[in-house]
């Protein structure tokens, strides 16, 4: 254990290792909802675009935020991000219509949708497989996934198993009922005597998608090709979710060696605010736990900002903190805070102002109460 205690052996607190590993093709960014995954994934993609030939960032979160982050509308087809020559973005629907996913139209698509309802998760699995098949046909040197909150991400990683179970169930149905399926297919609207042929076609589609997912899954388990960046904030629930996520990633044999802790308030910025000091003490407790639990991880701390990071230029600026540890500026003196204007985190000054206003208001109420009692 002494090698982790030695300061010389502590891993650098940046994501430079991700940029340096030129063999990486799949980079997942995930964590609890509301911790800033999209900002971190977009910032990482911006930095990767500076060292890779071409980068694609994909949002698999139903509540897509890539368009908001870059202030540019994206669709399910890759679009060049404004201000870049080699960075592309796309937002995919994790649960589209099955007939669209499978390429089966009309009655056949309807039959597939009906029979798949007995296989939980098969629709998402097929959708993911279709996306991966599309992505594999594209020529990008690196692909960044802005994933949904933890639970959805873990389901995504289970899709290969889901597909295998679904395929086995469909095959067992066909083997068990044989020619009866053609009659069932007619009752469900699959058409004439070709119903059984349609089922064979459907099974062929599923097998094809299963092969794609199996191939991608083998790449996901290769730490030369894939890594997972965990994003969190210094609070209990986020610490708990991060531990759960890392344990599940280990179970799926997916490499994870980077943690980004977002929305950190640095002690240097506290000044005389008791509210901020209390928040710093709370955060520090969980930061210590992160460092104790993940001493063999690269841990990056990002500051709490006064406004959202939106637009290519704002993302370029913020992304620098992924490669260079954030240096908090000293807090402004209370009497000169209003005119100094030099603090990089004006949120601190705003919170101080609000605390001062609350103090004044309390004094006014106390004076009114005292006057009321006197009368």
UniProtKB/TrEMBL annotation:
Region (Disordered): 329-360
Coiled-coil intervals, chain numbering: 199-226
Compartments reported by the entry: Cytoplasm; Endoplasmic reticulum
Annotated GO MF terms: ATP binding; ATP hydrolysis activity
Biased composition (Basic and acidic residues): 349-360
InterPro entries named among the record's database cross-references: ArsA/GET3_ATPase-like, ATPase_ArsA/GET3, ATPase_ArsA/GET3_euk, P-loop_NTPase
Record: residues binding ATP: 32-39, 235, 262
Domain ArsA/GET3 Anion-transporting ATPase-like: 25-323
Key words of the record: ATP-binding, Coiled coil, Cytoplasm, Endoplasmic reticulum, Hydrolase, Nucleotide-binding, Transport
Domain of life from the UniProt record: Eukaryota
Assigned GO CC terms: GET complex
Location of the active site: 61
Annotated GO biological process: tail-anchored membrane protein insertion into ER membrane
Pfam families linked to this entry: ArsA_ATPase (PF02374)
Protein family (similarity comment): Belongs to the arsA ATPase family.
Assembly and binders: Homodimer.
Chain's role: ATPase required for the post-translational delivery of tail-anchored (TA) proteins to the endoplasmic reticulum. Recognizes and selectively binds the transmembrane domain of TA proteins in the cytosol. This complex then targets to the endoplasmic reticulum by membrane-bound receptors, where the tail-anchored protein is released for insertion. This process is regulated by ATP binding and hydrolysis. ATP binding drives the homodimer towards the closed dimer state, facilitating recognition of newly synthesized TA membrane proteins. ATP hydrolysis is required for insertion.
Protein name: ArsA/GET3 Anion-transporting ATPase-like domain-containing protein
Organism: Chlorella vulgaris
């Amino acid at each position: 254990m002494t090698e982790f205690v030695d300061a010389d052996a502590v891993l650098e607190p940046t994501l430079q290792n991700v940029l340096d590993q030129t063999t990486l093709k799949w980079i997942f960014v995930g964590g609890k909802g509301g911790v800033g995954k999209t900002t971190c994934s977009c910032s990482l993609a911006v930095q990767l675009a500076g060292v890779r030939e071409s980068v694609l960032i994909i949002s698999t979160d139903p509540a897509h935020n890539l368009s908001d982050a870059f202030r540019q509308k994206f669709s399910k087809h890759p679009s060049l991000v404004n201000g870049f020559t080699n960075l592309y973005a796309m937002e995919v629907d994790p649960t589209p219509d099955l007939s669209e996913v499978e390429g089966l139209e009309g009655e056949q698509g309807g039959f597939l949708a009906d029979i798949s309802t007995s296989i939980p998760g098969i629709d998402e699995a097929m959708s993911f497989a279709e996306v991966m098949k599309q992505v594999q046909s594209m020529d990008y040197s690196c692909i960044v996934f802005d994933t949904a909150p933890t639970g959805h991400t873990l389901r995504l990683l289970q899709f290969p198993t889901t597909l295998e179970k679904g395929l086995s169930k469909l095959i067992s149905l066909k083997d068990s009922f044989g020619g009866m399926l053609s009659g069932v297919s007619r009752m469900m609207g699959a058409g004439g005597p070709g119903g059984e042929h349609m089922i064979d076609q459907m099974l062929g589609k599923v097998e094809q998608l299963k092969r794609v997912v199996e191939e991608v899954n083998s790449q996901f388990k290769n730490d030369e090709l894939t890594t997972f960046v965990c994003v969190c904030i210094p609070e209990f629930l986020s610490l708990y979710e991060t531990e759960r996520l890392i344990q599940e990633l280990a179970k799926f044999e997916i490499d994870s060696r980077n943690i980004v802790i977002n929305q950190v308030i640095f002690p240097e910025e506290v000044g005389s605010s008791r509210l901020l000091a209390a928040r710093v003490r709370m955060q520090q407790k969980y930061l210590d736990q992160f460092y104790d639990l993940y001493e063999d991880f690269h841990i990056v701390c990002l500051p709490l900002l006064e406004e959202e990071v939106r637009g290519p230029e704002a993302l370029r600026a913020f992304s620098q903190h992924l490669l260079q540890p954030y240096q908090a500026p000293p807090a402004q003196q209370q009497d000169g805070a209003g005119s100094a204007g030099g603090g990089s985190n004006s949120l601190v000054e705003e919170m101080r102002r609000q605390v001062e206003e609350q103090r004044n208001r309390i004094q006014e109420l106390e004076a009114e109460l005292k006057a009321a009692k006197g009368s």
